[in-house]
Amino acid sequence: MAEGSGSGHGELLVDKHVEFIKALDKKQDELEYWMTEHLRISGIYWGMVALGLLGRDDALEREAVVSYVLGCQNADGGFGGHTGHDSHLLYTMSAVQILVMCDALDKVDAEKVIAYVVGLQNRETGVVSGDEWGEEDTRFAFISVATLSFFGAQARLDIPGVVDYVMQSMNYDGGFGSGPGGESHAAQVYTCLACLAIAGRLDLVNRDRLSAWLAERQLPSGGLNGRPQKLEDVCYSWWALSSLHILGRPHWIHLPRLTAFILSAQDPSGGIADRPGNIADVYHTCFGIAGLSLAGFDRYPLAEIDPVYCMPRAVVERAGLRGWAAHVPAAWGIERDAAPRQ
Amino acid sequence: MSAARRPSVHGRRRQAAREPTAEERAQAQRQLEQYCALNHKVMEQRARNEFTNSALEATKQLLEQNTELHTVWNYRRQIFAGMEAWQDESERQRLLEEELMFLQQVIRKNIKSYWMWGHRVWVLKSLPHAEWERELGLAAKLLAVDARNYHGWNYRRFVVSRLKAAASDAAPQAVDEQEFAFTTEQINKDCANHAAWHNRSKLLPAILAARDEAGRDAVLAAEDVLILNAIYTDPDDQNAWLYCEWLQDIQRDDPARCRLLRQRVSAIRELLELEDDSRRPLIELVSALVELDRLEPGAVADAERGECIATLRKLAAIDPLHIGRYDDWGSALGRRWGLA
To answer: Taking every annotated instance into account, which residue ranges of this chain make up the domain Prenyltransferase alpha-alpha toroid (chain A) (predicted)?
Structure first.
């Protein structure tokens, strides 16, 4: 297959992508299906975000999804990536986001989820672990705050402690690493900015230096990488561009070229890969379409995505969680429209 | 959002469509059945809270095939803690040494597994007698193979923090010096190594704090040489420039910052005599002049202000990817300086 032949002259293969996502659950005859069982709940989340942006929310059966997700909750209140798997913050957030998208958050015992998340914060250091085994990472700072915000319960955390930890992870280039001392990485930058956005502390960011660093992530192909001298990858269309959106500077990269790169990574038979010519998967399909939405793709009426919550903006508004946009420092001079884009 | 912890789906090429042979199909089917049976067995053992050698062996086989099963890594740790041998210190040492050997194989299979690295950290923390120097050697080996490996650097920093904690009074400083020298070595090998520049920025404050004024000046002079070497090797590489910009932040006062900025401006002008349309030096020239203008009003003459605006126009022409940034910057400067 010739490289980039999937671009279909710059069209988004909407129906193919919908079919690709719907078929993910019907591949029981493939080893891959079983090898990825442990993150099925994240797979559903990625699929639902992609479908939501494509305006095809109805492609998955809502009742079945909700009942599967509820079955992944453990006695400790957290969620595993699949039925019978141990709880982890990563999957707990995916589960809660799916329930929010299905308008079914009331089906879960909120207090149990809240207690699970709150229990993972070390009250002395403010650091939040991913699970009871204690792995620390700035991703978990974001996930804990974001997950609790769906229940209006973020104040149950020591928020200044979380913010301190995130700021200890800031680097000389303005970016953020996976923890204090860690090298800047576009995906970690997103989680830190999104965390600070919800906490109302974006004033702590070195906006100019970080925006410049993020803008440098674009390579001549139009694609974005996650760190200097690394290859471009479709998923950074989300991590880096959502960060630039939060900073109010999406136009610091060339959006039409990014759009062309994402489209060229489409598989003609459905799904988007990390790079042109590679095998498609639901993770890159989600973040590719999310990137197109952020880049203002206008050859198909994609729904707008919220750059903090990585869900359709309409869903975030329904959940009453667009408040972060009002807490961006006034000095940045960003005027975010109050109403969703038509 | 499930940031990272992403499935291992990067960099696999689409194959030209070809029907698998009957033999290939049968083999794939056997592989699938074998994997599912093993997975089922482990989950059953786990449900029974079975903490035995048999469970240890089954989880090992399963994790060799799939490093991403965090539930199985968790179970493996529970098995260890639940075994009678765990109570005996020398037995525990033996079990965990064996576990490190097992992890050596797993690293070769999937160096990017967060769960595997988390497990290794647990093993090292649980070992009655951990050999941190040996772990530092492992981190060095990993970085020799892939000098940018994210996990390799994270692991190295973890090991170094333990070495420092275990060191006697004067020794933590020696560890910092050794790590600083390691970043020099990495940068000399490849001046575009972002991870090495980054780690250097984390170490430099401690290196400076341990010296008197003459010593600090000597270190900073050496930093200048390192930066200049990198900039002349590849003027468009961002690393040395970022580091250079950050050195401003840690200067003791504004006069010191202005001195450094003036040096930077003249170094950039010399470089531009060789390559006058090199994008990064042009950006840095504007950035240095603007900062100088901010710190010392009047230091930047009208002609140089005009040069900044003209340079941003030139940048927009040679680097259309970042035209939005140059436009924003030019407008802000125009407003600040009252230029149209």
So the answer is: 12-311
